[in-house]
Write a sequence for this structure.
């Protein structure tokens, strides 16, 4: 018997878990204190035939960082010796800020961005809005600078698609809030 | 570049009998997002307040992101090898399928805000219904987009209420904007003749159901904003889905398509 000869039989196939570790070194281009695995956007890493397939889900549909992230993944894994790579976009299930881990939330706070408060995502319905107008159900993020809970929204949209602009009414500093989606 | 997900042969959206109608419907949705996204981007750097400037650019970015997904899918359905960029940059006005509302000029912030609210209040229930489509491809894009559109509606609805129930000046301008846009608003909920088979197949929502929710949101918001719902019909200006556009679309396309028309195939 002779072994089948394939062109890449000699190429190493690093374990997907190891590839994930490598990807945890790829920073988010807009918020470099957290990595793309912190953000929860790497949905799957697997070998298909001789090709490493990395599935990534976009945070926001039009976020310009998405294609930069894909390029960074390609560059980083090429440096680690991955010869055959395919980066695929996976839409479903859609990304949610619930996938941002506890450690990453602390990193965001230390960086000056209030981390998302789970359960505050808007569903855009009048009922939710009415509940908020009545003073219920809309938790405010604590100021990442002084820790005060007395904060107010300046704008529902901020410097990147994933953030809203807030202000602390105690220390008066404006800050970014990583809004829930 | 990232590869697209594998097309799913089992997806009823790709059935040959639906091809033409599905392509047309997807262009309607994609062009609506693209043209409104472009209009909003015209405010970039010159909106009356920094927060509004940023918000309008963010909403524009979301909509252009949606347009890219819808038009890419339209190209796949058509099967002629056209990409989202080909459809956005290389079609003439007659081939665009957007509702007339989104191509109207921005004018002032009252018109921009009211137009956005009329659109968002339709967009969100439409995407909610579409996320239950029999087509997994349609459903997954809708499920993604609707999370973003929920924020769009929250913002535009709050602004309509604050400006409508604001000063005498802001109230008057919002009422004028509503009356100006009203004859165009109803086209959002008008199906095209080819849509019936798609609705029948469970691929796209029945616009009558979407319209009911849209009307509810309008009535409740306008009441809170102390604005009066115009008495005239909301659907007298229409034709976008047939490619009959206002004179404004050609000017918009001349700017949006200039680079690809003058330098075909140019890339960053």
């Amino acid at each position: 018997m002779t072994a089948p000869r394939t062109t890449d039989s000699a190429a190493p196939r690093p374990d997907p878990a190891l590839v994930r570790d490598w990807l945890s070194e790829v920073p988010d281009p807009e918020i470099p204190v957290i990595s793309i695995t912190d953000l929860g956007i790497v949905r799957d890493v697997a070998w298909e035939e001789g090709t490493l397939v990395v599935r990534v889900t976009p945070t926001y549909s039009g976020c310009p960082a998405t294609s930069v992230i894909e390029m960074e993944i390609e560059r980083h894994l090429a440096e680690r010796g991955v010869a055959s790579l395919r980066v695929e976009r996976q839409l479903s299930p859609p990304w949610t800020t619930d996938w941002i881990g506890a450690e990453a939330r602390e990193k965001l706070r230390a960086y000056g961005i209030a981390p998302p408060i789970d359960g505050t995502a808007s569903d855009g319905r009048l009922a939710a809005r009415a509940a908020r107008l009545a003073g219920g159900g809309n938790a405010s993020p604590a100021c990442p600078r002084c820790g005060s809970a007395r904060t107010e929204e300046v704008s529902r949209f901020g410097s990147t698609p994933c953030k809203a602009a807030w202000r602390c009414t105690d220390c008066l500093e404006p800050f970014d809030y990583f809004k829930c989606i | 570049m990232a590869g697209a997900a594998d097309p799913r042969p089992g997806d009823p959206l790709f059935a040959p009998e639906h091809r033409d109608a599905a392509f047309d419907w997807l262009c309607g949705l994609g062009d609506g997002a693209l043209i409104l996204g472009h209009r909003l981007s015209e405010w970039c750097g010159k909106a009356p307040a920094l927060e509004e400037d940023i918000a309008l650019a963010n909403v524009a970015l979301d909509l252009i992101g949606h347009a890219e997904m819808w038009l890419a899918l339209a190209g796949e359905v058509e099967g002629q090898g056209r990409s989202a960029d080909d459809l956005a940059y290389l079609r003439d006005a007659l081939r665009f399928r957007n509702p007339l509302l989104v191509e109207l000029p921005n004018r002032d912030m009252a018109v921009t805000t009211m137009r956005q609210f009329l659109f968002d209040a339709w967009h969100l229930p439409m995407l909610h219904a579409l996320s239950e489509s029999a087509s997994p491809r349609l459903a997954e894009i809708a499920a993604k987009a609707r999370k973003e559109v929920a924020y769009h509606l929250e913002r535009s609805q709050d602004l309509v209420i604050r400006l409508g129930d604001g000063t005498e000046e802001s109230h008057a301008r919002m009422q004028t904007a509503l009356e100006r846009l009203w004859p165009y608003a109803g086209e959002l909920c008008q199906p095209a003749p080819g849509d019936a088979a798609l609705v029948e197949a469970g691929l796209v929502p029945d616009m009558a159901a979407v319209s009911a929710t849209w009307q509810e949101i309008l009535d409740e918001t306008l009441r809170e904003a102390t604005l009066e719902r115009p008495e005239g019909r909301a659907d007298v200006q229409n034709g976008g889905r047939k490619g009959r556009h206002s004179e404004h679309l050609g000017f918009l396309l001349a700017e949006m398509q200039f680079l690809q028309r003058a330098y075909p195939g140019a890339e960053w």
User: Anything to note?
Assistant: The domain at 16-89 of chain A is CATH 3.30.300.130 (GMP Synthetase; Chain A, domain 3).
